[in-house]
Amino acid sequence: MLNLKWWFIFCASIAALVTTGMMGLLDALWYADVSKLSFAILGLYFTYSAYLGYLTSQTDHRCKVVHIKKNVKTGWFMSELMLGLGMIGTLIGFLILLNVSFASVDVSNTAAIKKLIADMSLGFSTSSLTTLVGLIASFLLKLQLVNIEYELKHE
Prior knowledge:
Layout: H1 2-22, H2 25-32, H3 37-56, H4 61-99, H5 110-153
């Protein structure tokens, strides 16, 4: 049962990734996130999630339980790491947003105002997207970890 729950969450995650790619949202994410931390977070999520799937598929039950319990603690750390990377991306986005120099902008020049707004929106999109990706990836990994811990307690 444990492996089936993991398989469902992992397949749903893959389906969501493929759907967002087909909709062009991954390309939009690539250009909107200057820091590219969103892709680092996604890479961590899918890598560790696949590792959890490998752990849950082990055949020797006694060995499996001991090995999974040790790695669940690492999973909780990975989940918090994803949140932390999302927050770092938020700070990077705010730094980009605040780095825009308002003092040198000529308010009568509409082209300069448009460039200022474009630069500010780039920082805002970086901060928002890295936070969102970090939260979602952390939530999905925690969901898998809670399922694993629940199954281990009730075996």
